[in-house]
Amino acid sequence: MTTVQERSPMPQEREPNPAMTAADRPIGYGRVQRKEDPRFIRGKGRYLDDIVLPGMLHGAVLRSPMAHARLVSIDTTEALAHPKVHAVITGKDLEGLNLAWAPTLSADTMAVLATDKVRFQGQEVAFVVAEDRYSARDALELIDVEYEQLPVVIDARRALEPGTAVIRDDKDGQTDNHIFDWEAGDKAETEAVFARADVVVSEDVVYPRVHPAPMETCGAIADYDPIDGKLTLYETTQAPHAHRTLYAMVAGIPEHKIRVIAGDIGGGFGNKVGIYPGYICAVVGSIVTGKPVKWVEDRSENLMSTSFARDYLMRGEIAATKDGKILAVRTHVLADHGAFNATAQPTKYPAGFFSIFTGSYDLEAAYCSVTGVYTNKAPGGVAYACSFRVTEAVYLVERMVDVLAQRLEMDPAELRLKNFIRPEQFPYKNKTGWEYDSGDYEPALRMCMEQIGYADLRQEQAEKRARGELMGIGVSFFTETVGAGPRKHFDIVGLGMADGAEVRVHPTGKAVVRLSVQTQGQGHETTFAQIVAEELGIPPEDIEVVHGDTDQTPFGLGTYGSRSTPVSGGAVALAARKVRDKAKAIAAAMLETRPEDLEWEKGRFFVKGDPSAAKTISEIALGAHGTVALPEGVDGNLDAEVTYDPPNLTFPFGAYICVVDIDAGTGKVKVRRFVAVDDCGTRINPMIVEGQIHGGLADGVGMALMEFIGFDEQGNCLGGSFMDYLIPTALEVPDWELGATVTPSPHHPIGAKGIGESATVGSPPAVVNAVVDALAPFGVTHMDMPCTPARVWAAMQGRATPPI
Amino acid sequence: MQVTMTVNGTEVTRDVEPRLLLVHFLRETLGLTGTHWGCDTSNCGTCVVLVDGEPVKSCTQLAAMTAGHEVRTVEGMAAGGTLDPVQQGFMEEHGLQCGFCTPGMMLTARALLDRNPDPDEGEIREAISGQICRCTGYATIVRSIQWAAAHPAAETTDQEVRA
């Protein structure tokens, strides 16, 4: 392990960016400016809504105002009579095409346009296609729908009570709102450990419903060509290839006749993984009208109907010795999946990777059980940088460790240090069967404590407490599991979670790399070029990264669950190494020597002992495509393709400490400082890694303090606009202070573990632990997010209720 | 109805519906898609443009209301092929990721620096607090604007950056 310590340098202190001077620019890993930036800073990004096709029409969706109601009738006569309306599509029309229902990513079905009932507020009821977006919206007002209201199920805790309205009465044999039961770990063994433990603490811990809310909402442009039967679909998608395959399966259009194009994506965070009814309606609209149809949802539609996140109601328990050795963790979860089970996750894992709720600790036993239920809320559940539910797991265990620390009157950092998995235990098999690839936890937490000045802060806190001032220090330590994953264990609707990559070196030594994954701001065009640069010595600016077009890129499952670097990064590195092997054989032929007599240094092969006898990658590329007599079995090119099936998941980790001050008069929480020490293995571009961490930390502060999708008793969504769904601005977050340790993944081709979601996963417990720490003088042992001023003030009065 | 306004230094006159929002006028009537749309409720700020030098949320202003005024969009920031220091600062300090909020953030920064060439961190955070970024956590945006303040003369030509 190596350590790197950085205190967010201010511009005036910083060295000039090496990327600005070609002479010392890193050819490979290092801090390099992004290749994406020149177009974005000029407003020349090409997002979905920027695309205009000749003759294009505009779609708009009519949505249900009710959370649960029977559809009595839909009258579209007036809308159809609107002079600018070309088509109005209802569920009945889709039934004729066998498209009224579509499969979800979790082996369930979802309504595309409602036929029998509406099951959540904001559900899609009809689709209008008109000449412009204003007319399409006007026409929605002209559709007359009669609803017959039904009892609503909003509180997941009551969803399974006898006599509760059955939401999914469309499903044969479904007589209640139960979706699944799932468990991990050893129940009996865990019970035995709990029975003999000195101390057991338990809490009800809610991870409330939140929403990824990318700045660009979701949308699609469908362009169906009836002559050659080809569908070109521009989409805001994180997974273009998976979408194409699913459209082929659902719509019956042959896969080779579907081209999915994802241009620039204005943020995704898991919100753009699934296929939404609007996309399918745009396709039908284009087929029906014979013209391209654009559909872009508005912000309320995005917040009310597309993939939400979390909504886990957890009972957490920890068993420990009286001197603070954690023995076992146990939990039961009630998972609210909304009206359709549409979570995007591997088939065998209905609760995602929640089984990493064992955290970073060496336990004797662990057991969890999860029950999934339907409610009259929007579907979704796996989104918002959650790493397939790791975020819920980490929040639970890190909150519970603090509850234990409070009970034992131990320092929460010391309690963690005492219980960490030790470095010599890696690879470490946890009690739910996951094998952690590598880790060295203690140095990360110690670095974090030193960087923030932990001992001094505790001293300051004691002094402030004596004066009645509220200051809290929150610690969290997370281990993530990302990079899904090995095909034998992980698939989404039957598609193995591998990713392809193709590297081609052109005759002049410039290269192109084609990816199956899809950037939404993570900087793939830069980092993937750097991986090839590191392997082949070609400067990153000479490497074109092609992605986001199924006609131009190899198959793969896309970008979510922090899987781009762990999976696709592995594919790219291995493809580049295949190119290098080939280059060696060709160089040997060019130098009239044997391949084993050649040595590689970045960018060229030379004869051992005679560095002047050398061929650069450029020369070799020209040789490969030229007239050099090639060795037996070597084609005349410098290309390679790899589909990477990772041998294991990767396990990034990190230590976070947050300091908050709370206004005792109003309950307002101010985040004063936040130090994050992350270990994601090899860092390809530290600047981009730090950017990913910054974004995730802001997410964590947002969820901990502000963000919440709530509902009233009638099922009205109370978070349906940015007036109600509060996202942090620059005033609610501090300047982030980062540190790093580097423990490479032993099984990954370049040792990289993935960083996209670490901070979103690790930061909420740090903030909430800080808030609870500040409120300890009031006897508070736990409070649920969001810690809004009103809720914090209520907690101070002993009256905080869970946000359900 | 007919509206006339100056956009990025050029006078434009178009026939529009009275209800047409400025954001749609810029994006769809004029094809200036660097101005984005993100929320409808004046909260997110991806639609910010400068009207007579002041940041305005173009999703909450009608094109008709803008008649006779001067509008500046991200497309008008790099004058004569030279990047605005704010644009260069965003590249230097990784002030953007997905790029969607970036044009609005940069224009607000430009307006701030025009009236206060040496803002402190608090003034910068206050200035951009009407805009949301989901990717960066704001720290690098703040540093980008600080970079621009420290480099008031544009140093890089459009040509150099593109190369």
In short:
By secondary structure, chain A is α+β, with helices and mostly antiparallel strands. The radius of gyration of chain A is 27 Å and the shape is globular.
Word description of this protein:
The complex is a heterodimer of chains A (804) and B (163). Chain A has 804 residues and is an alpha+beta fold. Chain A is 26% helix and 25% strand. Chain A has a 7-stranded mixed beta sheet, with helices on both faces. In chain A, strands 10, 11, 16, 17, 18 and 19 form a 6-stranded mixed beta sheet that branches. A 5-stranded mixed beta sheet of chain A has the order 1-34-33-32-22, with helices on both faces. Mean pLDDT of chain A is 95; it is low at 5-21. With 163 residues, chain B is α+β, with helices and mostly antiparallel strands. Helices cover 33% and strands 14% of the residues of chain B. Chain B is built from 6 helices and 5 strands; from the N terminus they run E-E-H-E-E-E-H-H-H-H-H. A 5-stranded mixed beta sheet of chain B has the order 2-1-5-3-4, covered by helices on one side. In chain B, a hairpin with a 2-residue loop joins strand 1 and strand 2. Chains A and B meet through helix 1 and helix 16 of A and helix 1, helix 2, helix 3, helix 4 and helix 5 of B.
